[in-house]
Structure formats: C-alpha cells, structure tokens
Write a structure and sequence with these properties.
With about 260 residues, the chain is α/β, with parallel strands linked by helices. It has a single domain, classed as Rossmann fold, CATH 3.40.50.1820. Helix content is about 40%, strand content about 20%. Strands 1-2-4-3-5-6-7-8 form an 8-stranded mixed sheet, sandwiched between helices. Strand 5, helix 4 and strand 6 form a beta-alpha-beta unit. Helix 1 crosses helix 10. The radius of gyration is 17 Å and the shape is globular.
C-alpha cells in the first residue's frame, strides 16, 4: 500500500515491484471513470516482465481524499509522476526515474494523453479503448437532451451518495464542457504524436472511432504507433490474456532505451 500527496490530499495507491535489485522501469497504470475496471491483471503481467507498476486512485475517488474533478485528476497524475521520478523515492522502490511510461484505460487514456502533452519526457503511452473527453464534451454542448442524460446518469451513479466519486456532478460536467477543445484528442495529437504510442480499441465500445483516431495521430506526425482492435467490450473481457501479452511485448520493444 502506498500513499501519494497531491495538492495536500492523500491518494491511495499500490506498487507492483518487479523481482530483482533493479532499478526497474516504471509504468503508471491509470484507471477509468470511475474505475470499476482496475486492470490489475495487467499490472501483474508487467511486473513479471520486469517493470514496476504504480496504481493509484485520483482525488475524490475510491477513498482518496479531496474532490473529484477533471483538472484535479490531471494534476494528480502529474504529481504522482513527479514522485516516482524523485531520486530518493526511486532508490527506495528499486525504480529507474528516467524510464517512466503510462498505460491508461478509458478515462485513464485521456489522463495519460494530457500528461504526455505537458511532459514529452514520458517514455511511452498505451491508450486502451481511450475516452476522448473533449469530443464527447463538444457533443454535449450541442445537445441539451444529451446534457440532461449525462447529468442524470452521473448524479444517480458515480456521484450519488455512497458512490465511488466525491464531488458534484453539475460542477464536473461544467468543467468538462468548458474545456471541450483542450480536452480533445485533436488538440493533444501534435504533442503526443512524438511519443511511442499503442492504440488498442474494442469494437463494442470506442472501436468505432479507432480509424479516425489513428489518422489524427498519424497526420500529427506519429511514426512510432502500434494499433490493434479487439472484437470485445470496453473492458476487453474476452481478451485479457492477449491484451496482457500485447502490452508486455510492446512495452519491451517500444518504451525503454
């Protein structure tokens, strides 16, 4: 069990330490919204391959202190990234602070892209059935019925009393729609295209956007890009072993110097 500090709030986390003295490269494993699928089987697979994996909950989610928000979650990833790059922390956890990559699922892919946009020293980014928050925000801004539907769903689900997220659905949705352009993959593409990328999509979820996303990144200059589509749901339920092997092989081939 680990605790990370982010803007004065305690984030609950875990580290999966690879065997051996290291130092081992590090992957930040970022979960979705709200994070029902935590992908810890992928963490174990990466650990077996010699990678240290850091998993944590953003502010206001799953018992972490603070209030959930898009900007808060972006800050949380940046703060955890800074922590694992600290030389003392890295030495204590047998980690290589100079080789840190990101694997994100759904909302975690968005957070990974925002992090890479602001920090081109991240070693690589795996974008697993990623949520293009900005594209959805643009749709919500243009459709009052969609806005009402999303707000009701969040109020009754993720932000409901006893739910996984601490915060206010109205404020969260206002934040999302107010940052529609800056939260879009189109906006981030020129920055993240310089980073080795793995784009994995599921046909029954974000797969319908796969080709357009790949074209966007390629048009932005992405040269080190691997793309895979699984005929599956958003959690890749029927392809967990294949996904783990794909991820381990790609990380080994593409992420570390």
């Amino acid at each position: 069990m680990l605790r990370f500090d982010s803007e004065g709030s305690r984030l609950n986390g875990l580290i999966y330490l690879a065997d051996g003295p290291g130092p081992h490269p590090v992957v930040l494993l970022l979960h979705g919204f709200p994070g029902n699928e935590k992908n810890l089987d992928l963490a174990q697979a990466m650990r077996r391959s010699g990678v240290n994996v850091v998993f944590f909950h953003y502010r206001g989610s799953w018992g972490s202190e603070g209030t959930w928000g898009f900007a808060n979650a972006i800050e949380d990833v940046a703060n955890v990234l800074a922590t694992v790059r600290d030389s003392t922390w890295a030495r204590e956890h047998r980690s290589d602070p100079n080789n840190v990559g990101i694997v994100g699922h759904s909302f975690g892919s968005f957070l990974g892209a925002k992090t890479v946009e602001g920090d081109n020293s991240v070693a690589c980014l795996a974008y697993l059935d990623g949520w293009d928050v900005g594209a959805d925000a643009i749709s919500i801004n243009n459709d009052e019925d969609l806005y009402s539907y999303v707000l009701a769903r969040w109020q009754e689900g993720e932000f409901a009393e006893g739910g996984p997220l601490q915060g206010d659905a109205v404020s969260a949705l206002a934040e999302m729609t107010g940052e529609a352009e800056s939260y879009s993959l189109d906006q981030m593409a020129p920055s993240i295209a310089r980073t080795p990328l793995l784009i994995v999509s599921a046909t029954r979820a974000q797969g319908r956007y796969h080709d357009s996303r790949v074209r966007t990144l390629q048009n932005a200059g992405a040269e080190n890009l691997t793309e895979v589509i699984f005929d599956d749901d958003h959690s890749f339920s029927a392809h967990r072993i294949e996904l783990a092997q794909l991820l381990v092989d790609w990380i080994s081939d593409s992420c570390w110097e």
